[in-house]
Here is the input.
Amino acid sequence: MLWLYEPVDFWHAHQPLQDEPWRKRVDLRNSQSPGAPTLDSDQGLAVIGDPVLVAGLPGDINPEPLVKALNETRVHKTAYEIACLARANELALLGHQAAQDAFVNGESEFGISLAYQQATRQREADAPYHSIIGLNEHAGTLHYQYYDTQPPGRPRSLLIDAGVRYRGYCSDITRTTAGPGESRFAALVHGLERLQLRLCDMVAPGVDYIDIHRKAHQGIAVLLSASGLVVGLDDEALVEQGITRAFFPHGIGHFLGVQVHDVAGKLTPPPDDAPFLRLTRTLEPGMVVTIEPGLYFIPSLLEPMLKGHRRQYLNTALLKELRGCGGIRIEDNVLVTETGMRNLTREKRQ
Ligand SMILES: [Mn+2]
Here is the structure.
């Protein structure tokens, strides 16, 4: 039974519920009161919600065993949920194409945001999260949260991390585009994308997600050497000395569902070499994860390396040149299938 709080209110409109499949299974009722509905019995009543909002209600507030069990039901997606996530991807990709076109046409971060909203028919307040749209060095701030209204004099790079919510289900997609004449940066974007696709291919039942994270570091080590950013260290030492972590400081991804960072990803805490990893489980069919390696030029992480013994391995001239491009992140949403994976972000659409 679903009670909807719908008071008579001449200030606000009620959004009518759309006719969606779940409604056939739910008894829908309206309530004029924001309080809990009167139940026949409050025996065995659990109340789940924001602790501040539900404090004082009768019943057992957020009982841990129940919350854990409910969270676990969200880990393996049903066919309906997968269809919703796929549609959220399809819609977001229209926005990403429009954003890229706007960048090529010299738009500002604000203009790119408008292009994304227009193409996805979604105002930002309804999006699963505030889009991250960074031009040039802004692309090196992981959760860059502003929009410049003026385009930079020389557009060097665009990083856009943006999704769409469809029937409550989120997409979470990142793309990076090199500006005109940025051949060095474009080669890095290409290299990171090839790595990202290989990491997506690793997704399969029985695979430890932490292994995908570690493979990402190995791949970034190869990329740092191949691009000449780091010289004179083998790939293993590059990871061991924390150099890959200075360029790729976040985790490889997370669960995705009705929350962008969906629940129940950490039955065990992350390992010491991946403190920010939000998902530490072995993959099983029905899980949906993001795969989002990055490679950034973040001043506060590069400075300590440039001041210490690791400086000798860094190509400071090339670093200086590329700093103005900020960074790269490429992110897809991937379903674990019975035999491997299905990349919801790169499906051929009819
Ligand atoms: Mn993500």
The pocket of manganese (II) ion is lined by residues 172, 254, 290, 292, 331 (CB under 6 Å). The chain has a mean pLDDT of 94. DSSP finds ten helices and 14 strands in the chain. Residues 169 and 257 are 5 Å apart (CA to CA).
